[in-house]
Amino acid sequence: MALLEVRDLHTFYGSVEALKGVSLDVDEGEIVALIGSNGAGKTTTLRTISGLERARAGTVRFAGRDITRAPAHEIVALGLGHVPEGRRIFSGLTVEENLNLGGYLLRRQPALLKERRDEVYAIFPRLAERRHQLAGTLSGGEQQMLAIGRALMLQPKLLALDEPSMGLAPMLVRTIFGIIQEIRRRGTAVLLVEQNARQALRIADRGYVLETGRIVLSDDAAKLAADPRVRAAYLGGHVEAAAR
Ligand SMILES: Nc1ncnc2c1ncn2[C@@H]1O[C@H](COP(=O)(O)OP(=O)(O)OP(=O)(O)O)[C@@H](O)[C@H]1O
Ligand SMILES: [Mg+2]
Questions:
Q1: Quick one: which atom of ligand 1 is closest to the CA of 41?
Q2: Can you tell me whether residue 93 is helix, strand or coil?
Q3: Can you state the angle between helices 110-123 and 140-152, rounded to 10 degrees?
Q4: Measured from the CA of 85, which atom of ligand 1 is nearest?
Q5: Domain extent at residue 165
Q6: Does the Cβ of 43 fall within 6 Å of ligand 1?
């Protein structure tokens, strides 16, 4: 039994069917990439899994439990963290206050809360240096680190990341991908939504390709990266060939 089992999800916005039967699995300790073009339904898939959108049909099982109709805060408490598209941090609060909010379930255990913050600071030394800085004054990359760090405060079994590299300079993109590998090394499985398919498939174990609400391909990440259809549509295969 996989840690996360998504079966035949159908999600609508009004009469528009954004997910037309999405199924995918994430095993413990795995990095699984979900790639696809703009509007394919990647964000909708993550939001439905996390209880932020309601599926009209299909099921989501996590750690052996049916969470299809569970409220979002319960899903977080079960160990499924979600870092949304566009880093929703609280810009008027400090780095440390943002982390404390991520660990709100531990609010009556200050010693444990501090321990978790220190673990996050060990992964993100840049956040440690800026712990009393207002989050709104952090750089884009630092805000992304804070969004990820906040989700790690409850030591999730699975972390769903929506476009963590969006808008970051190439060096920071590498940093973020390195951190995702570190998160997995510490025992958290990762469901990674990325437009940066090449780098996502490089660190992932397996991957799924989503097109207009349907999974059209799934395989080991290395096989997907070598697949001519994936190369042409998502890895800039033509551009690369022309550059040689
Ligand atoms: N709140 C909403 N109301 C109506 N339609 C929506 C809403 N959110 C998404 N959609 C539509 O659902 C489809 C899937 O959108 P989604 O945001 O899941 O795509 P995505 O793969 O994450 O795209 P991107 O790469 O641009 O982030 C799109 O056609 C989009 O226009
Ligand atoms: Mg999206």
A1: 18
A2: coil
A3: 140
A4: 27
A5: 4-87+154-243
A6: yes
